[in-house]
Write a structure and sequence with these properties.
mainly alpha; 3 domains; two-stranded antiparallel sheet; 11 helices
């Protein structure tokens, strides 16, 4: 299907849906809500295809292809665009596409993939376990000067999730403890700045 490799404008997808749903009712007023029509027959629907969702479902598999294509020439442009965010680790992060400074020459097709992935993958952590396993980098909830952060040297040493900043008692590591554990030399302002950027609930409700 061409939509799997091309950018489909949102207004076009909406127009296709509009035509299809109007056709069902012979271009007269809807008698059943659209979300019911696209449902299964045993729930009163007609298994009608929602073209907007179909386009998104065709974009989602590209995440796996890009994730597994590390070093491949065919995706070098995409790799270059996300290198400042840790490369393909971006797909594991709770990012907001509006925070990614993608160059204008990056094809919209790649932006569409990231948009779909954000819709599917983004979450609002709400429990102690969620907080501990939330990824620090490129996180839309962890901001310094209004922007998410990514420290490559920390990431390379295995600092990835909130629980990597905690000791066995689930208390935040002191800067000394942090440096000892990961073999990093960290400026006190950098360390305290990151800790301050993490929402208080994530640091005080670890149980």
């Amino acid at each position: 299907m061409p939509a799997s490799v091309l950018t489909v404008p949102p207004n076009f997808a909406e127009k296709v849906n509009d035509i299809c749903f109007k056709f069902i009712w012979n271009f007269k007023s809807d008698k059943v809500k659209c979300h019911t029509i696209i449902g299964p027959v045993d729930k009163g629907g007609l298994n009608m295809v929602d073209f907007t969702m179909a386009v998104k479902s065709l974009k989602a598999p590209w995440v796996k292809r890009l994730y597994e294509a590390d070093g491949s020439k065919w995706c070098s442009l995409f790799s270059s665009a996300i290198s400042q965010y840790g490369g393909r680790v971006i797909f594991d992060c709770n990012f907001d596409l509006r925070d990614l400074n993608l160059a204008p020459h990056v094809p919209k097709f790649y932006r569409d993939i990231l948009t779909v992935w954000q819709e599917l993958h983004s979450k609002n952590p709400s429990t102690g376990d969620d907080y501990q396993h939330e990824i620090i980098w490129n996180n839309r909830f962890i901001r310094i000067d209004g922007k998410p952060v990514f420290y490559l040297s920390w990431y390379r040493k295995g600092v990835f999730k909130i629980h990597h900043l905690l000791n066995e008692n689930r208390n935040v590591l002191s800067r000394f403890e942090f440096q000892q554990r990961y073999g990093l030399s960290v400026n006190i302002l950098t360390y305290s700045g990151l800790l301050s950027a993490i929402p208080n609930a994530w640091k005080t409700q670890q149980q």
